[in-house]
Amino acid sequence: MLAPTHEEEEAISTTSTPSSPPDLRAQKLKRVLQEPIVDMAQLRKLSWQGIPPELRANTWRLLLDYLPANADRRNQVLDRKREEYSATIPRYFDVDDTHRTNEEQTIYKQIQLDVPRTLPTMTLFQNQDVQQALARVLYIWGIRHPASGYVQGINDLATPFIILFLQENMNKEIRQIDPSTIPSEVLTRVEADTYWCLTKLLDGIQDNYTFAQPGIQRMMFKLSELVKRIDAPLYDHLKQQEVDFAHFSFTWMNCLLLRAFPMHLSTRIWDTYLAEVEPFSILHVYVCAAFLCHFSAELRSKDFQDMLMFLNNPPTQSWNLQQIDVLLSQAYLWKSLYENSPKHLNHR
């Protein structure tokens, strides 16, 4: 990896700010959430550094603009949005196949294939009721967003919301929840909240899923240019071994790195993404660059096949939250340096 230039060293001192201790930050976050009208700028600032699990569900709802900042309006909005979603089920999902268009039947069949493959190692997602809830969310979203329709990978993006809202409602860690004991009214609430939060998330990245997925193509190209600037030896080795960035980074972009990390680490990354004022897809590319360059030395010792195996199943099972914080800090630094200075990306 290239040594920092003087400009980069200067940026480190101006862009890196010490984070509050987790307990103090949690106290501050609780105070912000308890205000009659939440200060969204302060909420974003505190959430960027990570949200305590017990505060994550409502904080994500607020960051995604699913719930209003005004506390007096929240219950009313929540009830209305859940009822609105429930009304879409008989209209769009619970219909005979003969009433679906050919395109709708294609979407329906693809979802029925993808849902059982979603987090196959997690018992929760092998439960029939949970699978049916996920299928409804994906199908209704696809039908109501015809510009893209349902695309494989969106099923992954729904899973953090299902897990988060189930933990909130059941007051248990997800692996302590027996899916057969989930009350139907709880799953109904979780399904509706998942639909609306997924919708808000996808609103900012819908061109990732339109024809030819131009958003993902742009992000993969940008990642390639970043690595060329930041870590020329790694970039050259990838080219020498004929490893195209699409071979591994397509999934990173399509699923927002969900398949690259254990879920508790992915949700920590999403805390930061949802706290971003700018579209989080900008920071995401820099996170992918930091992630790839983290393994630079190891990757440069591998050939084509070994690199692909490594990058499509990166060794992150033993990673911890501190490593994620370092990854995000590195990504933030590079974003501060390069995002508004494209000339840097053309320099070798």
From TrEMBL:
Q: Which GO terms describe its molecular function?
A: 14-3-3 protein binding; GTPase activator activity
Q: Where is the Rab-GAP TBC domain positioned along the sequence?
A: 50-277
* Keywords linked to the UniProt accession: GTPase activation, Phosphoprotein
| Coiled coil regions in record | none
Q: Where are the transmembrane segments?
A: none
Database matches in PROSITE patterns = TBC_RABGAP
Report the superkingdom from the record.
Eukaryota
Q: Where is this region: Disordered?
A: 1-24
Does Phosphoprotein appear among the keywords?
A: yes
Tell me the protein's name: GTPase-activating protein GYP1-like
Per the UniProt entry, what species is this protein from, by scientific name? Planoprotostelium fungivorum
